[in-house]
Amino acid sequence: MKHLLRLGRPVFRLHARLCHQSVYSRNTNPRSVGVDLGEKKLEISSGRLARFADGSAVVQLGDTSVMVTAVSKTKPSQAQFMPLVVDYRQKAAAAGRIPTNHLRRELGTTDNEILTSRLIDRSIRPLFPAGYFYDTQILCNLLAVDGVNDPDVLAINAASAALALSDIPWDGPIGAVRVGMVNGEMLVNPTRAEMASSSLNLIVSGAPCSQVVMIEASAENVLQQDFCHAVKVGIKHTQQIIQAIQRLVREQKVTKRTPAKMFLVPNEMVEHVRKLTAEKIYAVFTDYTHDKISRDEAINKIRLETEEDLKNNFPQAEPFEIIDSFNAVTKEVFRNLVLTEYKRCDGREMTALRNISCDVDLFKPLHGSALFQRGQTQVLCSVTFDSLESSIKTDIITTALSGIKDKNFMLHYEFPPYATNETGRMGGSNRRELGHGALAEKALRPVVPKEFPFTIRVTAEVLESNGSSSMASACGGSLALMDAGVPISSAVAGVAIGLISKANSENPSEMEDYRLLTDILGIEDYLGDMDFKLAGTNKGITALQADVKIPGLPLKVVMEAIQQATVAKREILGIMNKCIAKPRESKKENGPVVENVRVPVSRRARFVGPGGYNLRKLQAQTGVTISQVDEETFSVFAPTPGAMNEAQDFIKEICKDDQEQQLEFGAVYTATITEIRDIGVMVKLYPNMSPVLLHNSQLDHKRIQHPTALGLEVGQEIQVKYFGRDPTDGRMRLSRKVLLSPAATLVKTLSDKLSISMGSDHNRKTGTES
After folding, report:
1. pLDDT class for 96, splitting at 50, 70, 90?
2. Same domain, 55 and 132
3. Contact 457, 438 (CB under 8 A)
4. The domain that contains 507 carries what CATH number?
5. pLDDT band at 371 (very low <50, low <70, confident <90, very high)
6. What single Pfam family name could you report for this chain, choosing any that match (predicted)?
7. For 89-125, what is the HEC assignment?
């Protein structure tokens, strides 16, 4: 039986090779193509690495190389959506480093890896055909990092090339570039050194015909016209990358597979649902008395009735067909209402904002707090200050690429399930929360002073959600920072723009008609074609993120969205300024305190304590953070004045020495033994003095193993000579042996030996034991 099992393994492997023979043969022809991006050359190659994957590509810029593989199953998934997984992983070896954790290997995923995975996902997902529900995995492997060129943009291009060169159905390719701006000049794929002085960090993914698929940007108050120009420059260069990938596809003569099944709803079912429910759904969407909950309940009631009817009239229909047929009609009614009647389901105009209210200083113990309410989206933001030592430490690759080891400003976004009237798991942050928090952090970071003396953490907790909670977090975070007295250069507001479009029947890649919606609701995001988030100040733009659900947006639409968002942003800033117009000039009573404490070298050992015990105790009991500034100065950070007072009392108690006397170097003093130890005795020169160690080596000229060998006891008084303090640790230097004559010690030792010898002789004579 074991022999048969052993035979089974090579047979299985042979079968696997035969199954992949066509893929392998297609991918064994190494080819490469270069793209000139200004002074830099991007190289795209395939056919040499990972040839068992459906598609594999390596993109190199400078000495930074990223390999991406694409694999899609041929058996349909059970999921009723596109099950796409993108994993970008950084390897420490790529940067010539070894991981610093205890296992010395890569563990879990870092925030930067997750955010880069989201960038790639958002760039490629819109181009998969509708109804393609097959498990698809995109793995991005960082091969080498030169510390000059960022790998994230290369990974997007490598994913595009891997999918385009595979037989996986995908309507690509796409191209992606990073655009920086230094002294008004646009730079394509700038180096790390160039990005250090750039006021713009824009990543744009483009589709053929100069269409936009994804935008991710952070900026330092870049003017609207400069930002629009940067997008155009980026899209122009993405077309060169797209053409290069298309050339590789033609050379390799790629043929896309025909899926066994596309999950599309039959037209007859959609028509049946349309006749049955269109008017009912229309009535719900035109009833402006509804809010999020009541509207959802009304639609769900119609859904349940429709599903029962479909089960009776179409008994052979699959569950996804029943669900999707209703969703298709709901989406159609909703979109037609906007396109043809210029109506939104809450009764607003296309460019109107929801009702906004703001409040600050909600909780007195907090360093800063704000509540931002926009319609049924509510976000509570709090600001916390901490010492600079508590700043976030970046991972190895990020440090190698950016040179930044830590940062003193962070924003954490939380989205509990009750915000949408649901239940769910609490704890930890998922990819969505991490992405939304990163966007709001990008929006606020440019206005936070870089030399602020504290580490700042903004916590944005979504209490209610009905769309655009990330931009509400940016608004609430700005208000909370001003409430905390952080001297931000300007207030920041954010808004989300949606899109409802109609494709051209003859050319689906072109738009026949479209409407841009300001400050979108959750349902407008779900049933729309775009979630376009823009944040900034009255002067310019600080962050932008565009999530597109259609294969591409014309540049004209993107420019209009930026303009519409800019107008809305200024209106929101006007409302926020009525609540708080500028940062508090004086810090709040419970604000953090930083003071320098001078500890003489003579008392430093006592202040720190054995093994740092006193410092750890002080920090644990009072909540302060202590760091050493120089030889005699320690910086004490306290989150509140009360904590500082408590810490000062603690420090005085530790370092007090009420009756310390001016000891004279070389003088002889009477010391009292307070404790006997193996290595010496603890003595005091005066009553309130802290005991100091008199080492065995300073007790006597002869070598002793324990102080009791000299007959020393606790409470005994001995004469010692004072030699000042050690310049390195500040400890007292005392000696007893210098007061003892070596000759006298020798005579005393000889007499002791003689006495012992005579005693032994006497014992032998009397027959007693010595």
Report:
1. confident
2. yes
3. no
4. 3.30.230.70
5. very high
6. S1
7. ECCHHHHCCCCCCCCCCCCCCCHHHHHHHHHHHHHHH
For 299-351, the pLDDT digits (tens) are 999 999 999 999 999 998 888 889 999 999 999 999 999 999 999 999 999 99
Q: What is the reported pLDDT for 624?
A: 85
Integer Cα distance of 443 and 88 in angstroms: 24
Rounded to an integer, what distance in angstroms lies between the CA atom of residue 395 and that of residue 109?
10
Rounded to whole angstroms, how far apart are CA atoms 329 and 627?
Answer: 64
d(C-alpha 384, C-alpha 744), whole Å: 69
- Other CB atoms within a 10 A radius of the CB of residue 357 amount to 11
Is 755 inside a domain boundary?
A: no
Contacts of 751 (CB under 8 A, 6+ apart): none
Q: Decide if 540 contacts 223 (C-beta within 8 A).
A: yes
Cβ atoms < 10 Å from Cβ of 566:
18
pLDDT in tens, 119-143: 999 999 999 999 999 999 999 999 9
Q: Residue 271: pLDDT above 50? A: yes
Domain that holds residue 42: 2-98+107-252
683 within a domain of the structure (yes/no): yes
Domain assignment present for 349: no
- Token digits of residue 185: 């000049």
Number of domains, the chain: 5
- Whether 15 maps to a domain, the answer reads yes
pLDDT of residue 506: 77
Residue 769 has a pLDDT of 42
Q: What does pTM read for this prediction?
A: 0.82
159 and 290 co-located in one domain = no
Cβ(492)–Cβ(535) under 8 Å? yes
Cα–Cα nearest to 382, from 408, 357, 407, 364 = 364
Radius of gyration of the chain (CA): 37
Mean pLDDT of the region 193-201:
93
CA of 60: how far to CAs of 43, 145, 152, 208, 244, in Å?
5, 10, 11, 22, 14
Answer yes or no: do 171 and 283 share one domain.
no
Alpha helices in 580-611 (DSSP H): 601-608
Domain C-terminal end among 341, 376, 406: 341
3 state DSSP class of 699: coil
Q: Are 292 and 410 within one domain?
A: no
Say if residue 693 is exposed, middle or buried (CB neighbours under 10 Å; 0-12, 13-18, 19+).
Answer: middle
Say if residue 319 is in the same domain as residue 375: no
- pLDDT confidence of residue 402: 59
